[in-house]
Amino acid sequence: MSIARIEQACAALPDDWLRPARDIGIARFAANGFPSTRHEDWKYTDLAPVAERTLAYLANPPPAQPAPVEPLQDHGDSMRVLFVNGRLAPGQRLPVAEGLSLVALADADAAGRARILDRLQALRADPAADLAALNAAFISGGLLIEIAAGARIERPLEILLQADGQPVAAQPRLVISAGANSQVTLIEQYAGTGAGLTNAVTDLHCGPGAQVSYTKLQAESPDTHHVALQRLVLERDSRVQVVQLDLGARLSRNDLQVELGAPGAEVSIHGLFVADGTAHVDNHTRLDHLAPHTLSSEIYRGIAANQGRGVFNGKIVVHDGADGTDADLNNRNLLLSQRAEIDTKPELEIYADDVKCAHGATTGQLDANALFYLRSRGLAEAQARSMLVNAFAKEILERIPLPRLRETVQQGLELRLARDAEAPA
Amino acid sequence: MLKIDDLRVSVDGKPILNGLSLAVQPGEVHAIMGPNGSGKSTLAHVLAGRPGYEVTGGSVQYHGQDLLDMEPEERAWAGLFLGFQYPVEIPGVNNVYLLKAALNARRRHRGEEEINAIEFLKLVREKAALMQMDESFLNRGVNEGFSGGEKKRNEIFQMTVLEPELAVLDETDSGLDIDALKIVANGVNSMRDPARSFVLVTHYQRLLDYIEPDYVHVLADGRIVRTGDKGLAEALESGGYDGVLAEAANS
Ligand SMILES: Nc1ncnc2c1ncn2[C@@H]1O[C@H](COP(=O)(O)OP(=O)(O)OP(=O)(O)O)[C@@H](O)[C@H]1O
Ligand SMILES: [Mg+2]
Asked: Is the pTM of this model over 0.80?
């Protein structure tokens, strides 16, 4: 990887207060480069194609001012913000709601800058953080979302991150802070066309007593490469419900990291990933229980069809002193063809006492008895299979907070798997 | 309508049905009785097209078509229904949603229009009332958490909605309490019709007190060894299989 070329590309970015942060990112990335399959956490996921694309796309940095876009359709059930190729699209009227502040990173005030810098510099010794450093090197056009203490944001905030088909490396960055006792529903959605690259970083900080619903829907085009780091920090008595859907892209890798930092913090995670065609989908989650009486529950469902390849790794670390932790992790996977594969590994590390931890993982095929039962009632085989796959995914899909989105996702899933069933395996 | 001729079936190389013949005409009710493991469920499964059975000889004609050549769903479209001895639990698939999909799949296949939502709801309510099933069962997962008896009742409920021409009911009476047995029998009797036939697999004569059979067959070692009328079931009830089988061997 040619660091000189990265530096050159970064130099083209606007000269704003973020420049020192970019330099830190460049330095870190220069030292470590892309995660290697020699690292245990990356052994199944080879980022060579991502590295290749990054380098190739440096020649085409997204224009500093992307073309203005059509105003978003307002469905009335949400507030919407649009990113194109990793940057906040200009010319849009950002939603306004009492207690909600949306500010381009470059325009942040002193307090906002401190918050952003803190996140940009929080790079732990972890290859996923090397990718975050690369993102930091190109930081520009990200968004700071702040919810005031005690504010209750009624309508969900949808952040749509679209690829417009140009061969570019999108490096979107969201820095989110939910103030004490605030309530908000956030939906981060990736979609678009072309063979781009997304290297996303989202930071979500939940103040004491905050209640946050956070959904990420990755539905990128089938030729996209998508890597993402999501870091959640939970303070005392805060509660976060995460819905994590990985449905698109040729290669996708998510690192979801949650710090339960103070007593009473509680996270629930519902994840679904689908690898069809020749897609490769890798989900790594890491939950750090750092304080007593913290709760986590995590349910992941994985589906692999055709020659799809899935990876799930769920790590739970109960740190010294985090007594009274309650953690529950369950992963079930469904293989729809002989050549599909899913590797799963739950990992527990416990250094505290009086801890309740349960974990389980299974991988299997569609229940042949159920399939025959449905067919005996007159459902064609394809319809019966699709019904069983939907039943499998349902537990996760019904957690999607926006009914309109739930429906779209479900229909999309049905279409995809129907197409996959037709494709010769 | 159904003609089984010298049917031979193996599972994992082990012969289970050894030259079974049976003919069912429209409007008839046939009861099949026989010791555990004699091959009754195997017959029911093979008729419905369950994978995993190897047909090594014989034939099955349904309305002149080669039944064994049809997919399970094609058999359903052609009017065949299997009431399972062990109905399958399918969490996440809603009971009425399945019924509607099943009904419409058959209608589409027959070139008929799909049933509209209001008509369907009316039909389902009417049949649920007939089977004295609480409507809460309709919106649960298919058989999910149902008791043994509730599952059987659900099978017959599905049958009354789907209105098959030939229903093969495998031990639908097992596990039913006395009231439920009457309800199930009533469900079956409500559907008796000169054009519709039933094959009832049962261990108990009691069911046949409620559903009058035209023929009673004894299946043993993968063959029909005796055929008679309702009196045969009574003889079995009092004398067990030993007597009847010995008599069959001597004749
Ligand atoms: N998948 C299988 N593998 C091996 N043996 C099988 C299989 N399915 C059925 N059998 C055997 O075939 C024989 C017939 O079984 P079947 O279920 O048809 O009996 P049945 O007459 O319905 O018995 P019951 O009255 O107990 O329901 C039994 O010996 C059974 O063990
Ligand atoms: Mg049986």
From this structure: yes
